[in-house]
Automatic annotation (TrEMBL):
This is Sterol desaturase family protein. It comes from the Bacteria. It holds the Pfam family FA_hydroxylase. The chain crosses the membrane at residues 52-71, 83-101, 150-172. Keywords: Membrane, Transmembrane, Transmembrane helix. The keyword Transmembrane helix applies. It is found in: Membrane. Coiled coil: none annotated. Residues 96-230 form the Fatty acid hydroxylase domain.
């Protein structure tokens, strides 16, 4: 049993690590095509971003691996395989519920980590990326990584979700983590600056957090930032931020 848990944790660490490397490499390549020279002179920073991110992969992989083992071997969690186990409308709603719960957790822990002491101890690592690149998606100090790593493994015990919907959540999590840091806007202007953009977070919004620190704390949605008066609107993409 111990070996099975260990193997599951190891497998999850590998999955998270490879997923990070592929997603970040893909968008770093896209950056080279779309914004040649954007990461010029950032080689040392990028190496650091990759090291912290790979350490984070283990911190994310271990709790995920333990829970995945429990799901398979012990029937833990509310993750279901039969798509008809819950009404079909629950599929998209469960995705939204996971994103909203994660966003809420992230907003408040992130805001807390901007207090001087937690910032110094944990969050400074993430902000050492100036400006962040596509490799910064998981560049967190282990303490900060831990606050992120517990989210999905906890939610699966609280909110029922189909395994496919969970895969969608994890894909959105990975893609937004990478694209929000890559230094240019991937999504079309009509979306970012339109009605949907008033509520959704993309690179333009998170860039401003990295430039000004004390605003735009959210992860997926601007709801908490707007409610709490911490939303400063979209940032600009000039180097040196
Ligand atoms: Zn960031
Ligand atoms: Zn921050």
């Amino acid at each position: 049993m111990t070996l099975a848990i260990l193997l599951s944790a190891l497998a999850m660490t590998l999955i998270v690590g490879v997923r990070y490397l592929l997603a970040s490499a893909g968008f770093a390549l896209a950056t080279r095509v779309r914004q040649p020279g954007l990461y010029r002179g950032l080689d040392r920073q990028i190496r650091r971003e990759i090291s912290w991110s790979l350490a984070s992969a283990a911190i994310y992989g271990i709790p995920a691996g333990i829970v995945a083992w429990g799901w398979q071997a012990r029937g833990w969690t509310l993750v279901y395989r039969d798509v008809h186990a819950y009404p079909i409308w629950w599929l998209p709603l469960s995705v939204l519920a996971y994103l909203a719960a994660h966003d809420t957790w992230f907003y408040w822990t992130h805001r807390w980590m901007h207090a001087p002491r937690p910032f110094r101890i944990a969050h400074a690592v993430h902000h050492a990326s100036r400006p962040p690149t596509a490799w910064a998606a998981m560049a967190f100090h282990p303490w900060e990584a831990l606050t992120g790593a517990v989210v999905i493994p906890t939610l699966v015990f609280v909110i029922p979700i189909h395994i496919g919907a969970l895969a969608v959540v994890l894909t959105i999590m990975t893609l937004m983590g990478v694209t929000n840091h890559m230094g240019w806007e991937l999504f079309p202007r009509w979306l970012v600056e339109g009605r949907a953009g008033r509520w959704l977070i993309t690179a333009s919004h998170h860039q401003r957090h990295h430039q000004e620190y004390r605003c735009n704390y959210g992860l997926y949605f601007r709801v908490w930032d707007r409610l709490c008066g911490t939303d400063k609107g979209l940032g600009r993409f000039d180097r040196g931020g």
